[in-house]
From TrEMBL:
Active site residues of this protein: 256
Species lineage: Bacteria, Pseudomonadati, Pseudomonadota, Alphaproteobacteria, Hyphomicrobiales
Family the entry assigns: Belongs to the aldehyde dehydrogenase family.
Aldehyde dehydrogenase domain segment(s): 21-479
SUPFAM superfamilies associated with the record: ALDH-like
GO term, biological process aspect, one: gamma-aminobutyric acid catabolic process
Keywords for this protein: Oxidoreductase
Any one cellular-component term (Gene Ontology): cytosol
Signal peptide: none
Protein name per the record: Succinic semialdehyde dehydrogenase
Pfam family, one: Aldedh
Length: 484
């Protein structure tokens, strides 16, 4: 991996705690390239004691940070953004090596990740309070916004860079400090980001990165009285655990959890555009994003055409290492992910659905899986109810708009959904009826740092991105002034 980098010092393999690179003597965890299974680095397995040290240094650093003019914080964050963009190629190579996504997608993720820092560097200067007309003439109502304090972030492997910056940037911009526990499979991107934050002049202690035993680190982060907020992206199961654990100290909490995104195609849709959006939404990151389409619901009049064109397009997606030219589909992150896709395929086939393309492990071996389209799906099937998190597009048929909405909402999740139609009345009706936090209308790619990202129902709590993301790291204080 080092040989791919222009700046080899970005390849850090120690934890970053209180401004120091530590953990050399600890037990080490292998980091593997999912495309080859090769061990590309070893990182420390730290636990509760080191997490406590990170929290304590965050607590000290945060007070001085919050007291600085917002413009100071803004300047440092802006420098961090610039450094990320200057090192985009190296950061992308590190990301592809540990996560597997095609290099072009990794570059895209770095730009997307950096965009959160750029946005919140600007937003830092705009944390406005308010003055509210008071009920008596000798009184004033003043509303202040203040940083919540020390925050903890627990992040997943599918976006090793962006899931950190979209939490850390608004936290730091608002005057908070943050301790990050990145996913054990993808720690190198996190360390590289910390290295660049240090170069940008971020004071020690404000951003620590701790890798190791998830339960122990998570336990310390959720039970510490010094930590005032926990922000998590990952599985619904772990999110519920963290919510429970955070209850004893009543922390503020943001959760971005699983989804079961429907993608509706109506009879009046532009089918070619729908197919293009479908591929973008489903196969990005080899189907491993929480807003990837999980179910395609297609109206009877265009069902055959859509399914045929989708399968044709999907069959052309090149599978391979993210470093190979022209590859659109990298490996899945681990064998358990392959097994889940296989289980969903087998369950669908057993129930009478039909594989149109793909359907099995790829000839390349490892964790490569053929991009798959299955038609004739029925509602009770596993792929209808669970998040597949892999390159499987299951297609269901519907007749009426009401039926489509009912099917789309028939899940405990509510993160993203997509629909294609050219009827303006239907655009409004369906967008309003879908029970989820993000809706793509005639669009399969909708993530941006400018818009609120988050879920309804069991998909989560809170929003990331835009001014909404900033509010998550701010307390509101009402100051009643009397006797004026
Ligand atoms: P996924 O791996 O599918 O993204 P997980 O919820 O398993 O989702 O993991 C997301 C993050 O949560 C990772 O950083 C993981 O190490 C961490 N994690 C897993 N188990 C726990 C736990 N018990 N407490 C705290 N964090 C955890």
């Amino acid at each position: 991996l080092a040989s791919r980098l222009k700046d080899k010092t970005l390849l850090k393999t120690r934890c970053y705690i209180g401004g120091k690179w530590v953990g050399e003597d600890a037990r080490q965890i292998d980091v593997q390239d999912p495309a080859t299974g090769d061990v590309i680095a070893q990182v420390p397995s730290l636990g509760a004691a080191e997490t406590r040290a990170a929290i304590e240094s965050a607590n000290t650093a945060q007070k001085a940070w919050a007291a600085r003019p917002a413009k100071d914080r803004s300047v440092i964050l802006r420098r961090w953004f610039d450094l990320m963009m200057q090192n985009q190629d190296d950061l992308a190579a590190i990301l592809t090596a540990e996560q597997g996504k095609p290099l072009a997608e990794a570059k895209g993720e770095i730009a997307y990740a950096a965009a959160f820092i750029e946005f919140y560097a600007e937003e830092a200067k705009r944390v406005y309070g308010s003055i509210v007309p008071a009920p008596a003439s000798d009184r004033r109502i003043v509303v202040l916004k203040q940083p919540v304090g020390v925050c903890a972030a627990i992040t997943p492997w599918n976006f090793p860079a962006a899931m950190i910056t979209r939490k850390a940037a608004p936290a730091l911009a608002s005057g908070c400090a943050m301790v990050v526990k990145p996913a054990t499979m993808t720690p190198l991107s996190a360390f590289a980001l910390a290295e660049l934050a240090e170069r940008a002049g971020l004071p020690a202690g404000l951003l620590s990165i701790v890798t190791g035993k998830a339960g122990e680190i998570g336990g310390e982060l959720t039970s510490s009285a010094l930590v005032r907020k926990v922000t998590f992206t990952g599985s619904t199961e772990i999110g519920k655990d963290l919510m429970r654990q955070s209850a004893s100290t009543v922390k503020k909490i943001s959760l971005e959890l699983g989804g079961n995104a429907p993608f509706l195609v109506f009879d009046d849709a532009d089918i070619d555009a729908a197919v293009e959006g479908a591929v973008a939404s489903k196969y990005r990151n080899t189907g491993q994003t929480c807003i990837c389409t999980n179910r395609f619901l297609v109206q009877a009049g265009v069902y055959d055409e859509f399914v045929r064109k989708l399968a044709e397009k999907v069959a052309t997606l090149k599978v391979g290492s993210g470093f190979e030219e022209g590859v659109a589909q990298g490996p899945l992150i681990e064998m358990a992910a392959v097994e889940k896709v296989e289980e969903h395929v087998a369950d669908a086939v057993a129930g009478g659905a039909k594989i149109l393309t793909g359907g099995k492990r790829h000839a390349k071996g490892g964790t490569f899986f053929e991009p798959t389209v299955i038609a004739g799906m029925k509602r009770g099937m596993k792929a209808a109810q669970e998040e597949t998190f892999g390159p499987l597009a299951p297609v269901f048929r519907f007749d009426t708009e009401e039926e489509a909405i009912e099917m789309a909402n028939d899940t405990p999740f509510g993160l993203a959904s997509y629909f294609y139609t050219r009827d303006i009345g239907r655009v409004w009706r369906v967008a309003e009826a879908l029970e989820c936090g993000l809706v793509g209308v005639n669009a399969g790619l909708i993530s941006t740092e400018l818009a609120p990202f988050g879920g309804f129902k069991e998909s989560g709590v809170g929003r990331e991105g835009g001014p909404w993301g900033m509010e998550e790291f701010l307390e509101v204080k009402y100051v009643a002034m009397a006797g004026l």
